[in-house]
Amino acid sequence: MSNLPCNCPVACLAGPEGRRGDDIQIGDVRVVTASLFDPFYSALRPNQKPHDNYARTNGSTVIGSKYRVSGSVIVPSARGSGGSTLYDDPSPSAGKRRPAIVLRQSKNSRGVEMDVCLMGTFNGVSAADISNVFQHYISHIYTDTMPNKKAGHLHTSPEWQSPSQEQWVIPLLHPIKQSTIPPRWRARRTSGTDTSAEEGYYLEEDAMFQLRNLVTRTSRNFDNTVVYNRSGARSAFVEKLDAEYRRRHPIAKMHRRNATKKTLASQHTKRFSVGRPTPMAISAY
């Protein structure tokens, strides 16, 4: 039944064209570099992400330098913004390159400050397989391929197209500071025709009204049940959040074997010891 069109009341309000131009508008979907864990750690301050020794590239976690635990402060790149969410920022502080919906924004001499809702695919897993850390704090962005079109969702203009079957948004505000205006997340087309490089997704007024209400409800629920809960729910949630973060960003120690000794290229992976056995790179949010 996933090929049936959506018949919700606001579906017809999603326009066929995206937005153009550099100026940031409320409702824009812009390119940011952040982790889906970030909104939770922002709300849970002073709790911070566990440190890890992995940098991110091409959607996987690989051996590298430490992931900084401060907020998202990046210089964005427009390259490939319409394809998939890849780790594309060379700095170790960034996280995964992804779309984000702008709810508030301001510009000054130091750059751009935005409050955004991060979007992601959770590596394309089904809704039932998403970690229960996130389960109660995510909502669908409508796609033609989403299995359950009766599930609550938001519509973008134009309708969201993605290699993944489902697209999600975390309706918790996350602050982003950038030195330059981030590029638009370019609209994709299934017709085979190229989209203008300047045309990006956005949420029209009614969809933004829905999102703001969803953010209010989700934030209130998270504050009441987790952030300001005095019965131990906060510490229990942080423990689960940290465990899931470590699972996605494992801590590892690198030991170089005889750095002066020449080795064959095929032996390169043997020059690092990370316990037994040597771990494979895992995908991270």
Task: Outline the structure in words.
This protein is of the alpha+beta class and 285 residues long. The protein has one domain (11-210, 225-271). The protein has helices spanning 38-43, 132-135, 205-227, 233-248, and strands spanning 29-34, 54-57, 60-63, 72-74, 96-108, 111-120, 139-141, 153-154, 167-169, 174-178. Strands 1, 4, 5, 6, 7, 8, 9 and 10 form an 8-stranded mixed sheet that branches. Strands 2-3 form a two-stranded antiparallel sheet. The longest helix is centred in the last third of the chain and has 23 residues, at 205-227. Mean pLDDT is 75; it is low at 52-94, 252-257 and 259-282.
Task: Give me a quick take on this structure.
The protein has 285 residues and is an alpha+beta fold. It has helices at residues 38-43, 132-135, 205-227, 233-248; strands at residues 29-34, 54-57, 60-63, 72-74, 96-108, 111-120, 139-141, 153-154, 167-169, 174-178.
Separation of the first and last Cα atoms: 29 Å
Shape: globular
Class by helix and strand content? alpha+beta
Q: What's the gyration radius in Å? A: 20 Å
Largest sheet: 8 strands, mixed
Average pLDDT over all residues? 75
What is the total domain count? Answer: 1
Query: Please, what is the oligomeric state?
Result: single chain
Low-confidence region ranges: 52-94, 252-257, 259-282
| Number of helices in the DSSP assignment | 4
Question: In percent terms, what proportion of residues is strand?
Answer: 15-25%
Helical content stands at 10-25%
Q: Helix and strand succession? A: EHEEEEEHEEEEHH
Number of strands: 10
